[in-house]
Amino acid sequence: MAVHKTTIKLTKAHRIRSDTSESVARFEIHYHRCLNAEGLPVYSLSEVASDPERLARLYRAMMLTRLFDTKAVALQRTGQLGTYASSMGQEAIGTAIGTAMRPDDVLLPTYREYAAQFLRGVSMTEILLYWGGDERGMNYQQSREDFPISVPVASQTAHAVGVAYAFKYRKQPRVAVCILGDGGTSKGDFYESLNIAGVWKLPVLFVVNNNRWAISVAREQQTAATTLAQKAIAAGIRGEQVDGNDVIALYDRMRLALARIRDTHEPMLIEALTYRMCDHTTADDASRYRPDEEVEAQRVYDPMHRLKRYMLNNGYWDEHKEQQLNKACIDEIEAAVKAYLETPPQSPQSMFDYLYEDLPDALKVQRAHAAGRKRDD
Amino acid sequence: MTEVNLVEAVNLALAQEMAADDDVLVMGEDVGINGGVFRATINLQKQFGTTRVVDTPLSEAVIGGMAIGMAAQGMKPVAEIQFMGFIYPTIDQILNHASRLRNRTRGRLSCPMVLRAPFGGGIHAPEHHSESTEAMFAHIPGIRVVIPSSPARAYGLLLAAIRDPDPVVFLEPKRIYRIAKQEIEASGEALPLDTCFVLREGSDITLITWGAMTHDTLQAADALTEEGIHAEVIDVATLKPLDMTTILESVAKTGRCVIVHEAARSGGVGAEIAAGIGEKGLLHLLAPVERVTGYDTVMPLYRLEQCYMPDKQQIIEATKKTLEFV
User: Fold this and answer.
1) What ipTM goes with this model?
2) pLDDT digits (tens, 9 = 90+) for B129-187
3) Which of B61, B72, B103 lies nearest to residue A354, judging by beta carbons?
4) In this complex, do A363 and B242 lie within 8 Å of one another by their Cβ atoms?
5) What DSSP designation does A244 have?
């Protein structure tokens, strides 16, 4: 694994020894990558890189997510789904997270992390129901303790700290895994959560999916910090960068981080560097604020292409397997779409049925009123 | 029986519930060795240790958010915000998450947390330490808003709040934290979270209030009794959900009503109560509903505090005005 050392530039006052000051702290952020854009190893690889079955599982998760994404956008464009946030080009991050986590860990995702959610057992039908305007899409039947997608950016970082506190309090060897975006690292919630996780040594992994764009605001406009990973340093916790389009490097680093957190209860932050190949959501038009050339230049770094090239180079993969996998994914997606489209809507009174454990008497009149309402469709 | 004041009753409820249930945890700024700035959590850390009585960094937003994470894991966190003036960073977490977690997951996850904070004026506190903004929370669907006004109700309502399976904002009227001691039976019995308390029965007029103003309202009722006016006094106590049934029954009996609250007038909970009386109790009314409230101003610094706070005399005057209406 390649490790490029990036030394954070300290202020002039810190660098120059003088009669009145001395350096009291120095920090480094490491950047990790295994494969280059052509799928060629840039450094020695871990055992997963020589395990065709595990590689195929990683590849499958990325392909399923990408094909799902394409389908979801098509459903939105044809009026069969509400606003949808695509994860195009960022599938490696969720794939690595979802593969490295244990079933009894807890995931606290933002939108755009479907790969991780699918691997955790969230169904494609549930994700479609959610963006299709139905709360039942957050009642995950498999990963019962995972949090639903958090829309208010970085607010889930605080929940992750609380979940991790409960794990530590009950002496459970579990980890809370919280995903947020580059824009989220500008929020106070994020800094406060990192700070508390650090001071209490809580078993939480923060993963920053740095896709370079927070809707129309570029990463460079979010912060003057050289890396987002170094924000962890200020909270006294470890932070590192990983190539977010290199699923092997991501998986290795996530696995190591989770093992270390489980062992030491020390939190960690991983910044995964990727690129948002899509609009922010289907309601966005990214051509208003970023040049097509920038997007085109990113295509060579595609995470699926990179892993496929590596597998082809090593004889782990061929076009027949590719086509078989493609068909299997499409069949699975079509079945999920069918189940979504055939799901009858909830009753209007369901608005009241999960508001409290027991509906207060004061709301029963409103519930009865809602029962008489008709939907538009 | 134990004789305690209101803040001691809070402490007693916390201690008993922590002893009874390992999932109950207290956290907030200075709640540990310092016992809270009002001593609501005094001696708890000594008794239950630093993992259950947790001094947090200065992070109100994340105090609210962490409680959600803990609660989703089945713990019962009781988070303290030191003063209501500092509670606003938690509103994002309460409004966007705590109040909605059960609903958005269709019952898969829930949020049995309590957010405690002292509120209200009258103690010559610094800026930002005296506001009464309970209406902001009472507007949020999916939570409960509870305000005790006596040691016994502080004890019983806090027990109920901790045991409740949904998020509860528990606001403590700090002006009456130590105003009087009361014998309470610390039997571990909780009070209902959806019922007003009729503190005094009367046939001439209904005085509706909550929090510290309950104290002034009872004094006004005493003075009115001497003049032969028998006021019924209701402590709303649970502002959300609001028990309009008890209020309407009382107004049906007396036909006259004064609502008393320290908070600013516009959009206050008093307006909701008055509207509810208008909707369901209009034909029982013999006079317009009067409100005695704080002004729609910024809470002044303490040299003008007494000119802002509603007082006993205003309650007496509003009562007489209502009674004189023909």
Assistant:
1) 0.96
2) 999 999 999 999 999 999 999 999 999 999 999 999 999 999 999 999 999 999 999 99
3) B103
4) no
5) T
